[in-house]
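Supplementary Note 3. Input sequence used for the single-chain structure prediction.
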Amino acid sequence: MAKLAKVTQSTAGLSPSGTKEAEKLMTEISEIKARQASEGLTDGEQDRSEEVWLRIVRLMELRQREFHDKKHDSHESKEHRELREEIQQLHEKLQAHKTKLREDLGLTAKEVKKDPTVNELDERFRTLCEMGGA
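The predicted structure, written as discrete structure tokens, is reproduced below.
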């Protein structure tokens, strides 16, 4: 019931096509997270997985349309674009490093979490996401 209210609240003010896409994204995110939870990933790891993260970013873009008109959206500030690009690059670097640790070194998810480079990249990623509203 709470999820239904959350979906309704998050799609309020969107166009019918935007609402449909947002609901589809929410459903996909839920399905992916359920699958990842069954694989043993924590909520934080699920949120940072590329599959979920890309859908969350798209959902945030849809929600931003609720607050900005099309003219404002087309004139996105240079700083915002650069920040979003930096977040994307950092996310890719973080995921690549985690994959390298798991595949090349055979580390478990818990061991990867303890890696100082992963912790540093993850902290920077979270900081940038907070700055960018992601």
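Helices lie at 2-11, 16-38, 43-48, 50-67, 70-74, 78-104, 109-114, 116-132. DSSP finds eight helices and no strands in the chain.
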